[in-house]
Design goal:
The protein is an alpha/beta fold and 199 residues long. Helices cover 33% and strands 16% of the residues. Helix 2 crosses helix 3, helix 5 packs antiparallel against helix 6 and helix 6 crosses helix 7.
């Protein structure tokens, strides 16, 4: 079955540890992971990894994608340099294509107004409250939240973030998805049997 690629945003100071579980298991399921940057110029992660974006943000169209993933980054906190990525998220959601945001990217989406009418989470509620967004009553104290095509998670929950992504795209479902989460989040060795049985 042919699948549209998943677009992974990369920009200077992006948090390279936050999306690895998701992208690895999406790739194993047959999704092409296509990096997208502010331009095609190389960027450097918080961990010092240099990434060469496969494409520029302006060239990405929702109809050509299965999902847009936005990792956290120091730049979400230091101005509006990453605001175009939040605007692209708005475009994706309006077209019915899902978006997944973790850590600082949730603040970017809050500033864009995308969390005002959706259940969501982040690091802590007062982190998003500092953006002066209008969605505080929709904040959920959970590891990760999915609402109408938008996944949000805090910086300490890359495995829960991946769980929501894998579930939303149908890579794993039900007890298999639960077993995948238990294995990688809780080191639950009993989950191996469930995953092996699903192959």
């Amino acid at each position: 079955m042919s699948r549209k690629p998943v677009h992974l945003a990369v920009y200077d100071t992006y948090a390279d540890w936050e999306t690895g579980h998701a992208t690895a298991y999406l790739a194993r399921a047959g999704y092409e992971i296509r990096t997208v940057g502010p331009s095609r110029e190389p960027v450097t992660s918080i961990g010092g990894l240099r990434a060469q974006p496969a494409g520029a943000l302006d060239d990405v169209r929702p109809e050509d994608s299965s999902l847009l993933i936005l990792p956290g980054a120091d730049l979400w906190e230091t101005g509006d340099q990453l605001a175009p990525f939040a605007r692209k998220a708005r475009e994706f959601l309006a077209a019915g294509v899902p978006v997944a945001a973790i850590c600082g990217a949730t603040a970017g989406l809050a500033r864009e107004g995308l969390l005002d009418d959706r259940e969501h989470t982040s690091a802590v509620s007062f982190y998003l409250a500092a953006t002066e967004y209008k969605g505080g009553s929709r904040y959920v104290d959970a590891d990760a939240v999915t609402d109408r095509g938008l996944i949000t998670a805090g910086p300490t929950e890359p495995v829960a973030f991946a769980r929501e992504i894998l579930g939303l795209l149908g890579v794993y479902e039900g007890e298999v998805l639960d077993a995948w989460y238990r294995l990688f989040h809780d080191s639950d060795v009993t989950a191996y049997a469930v995953l092996e049985g699903a192959r």
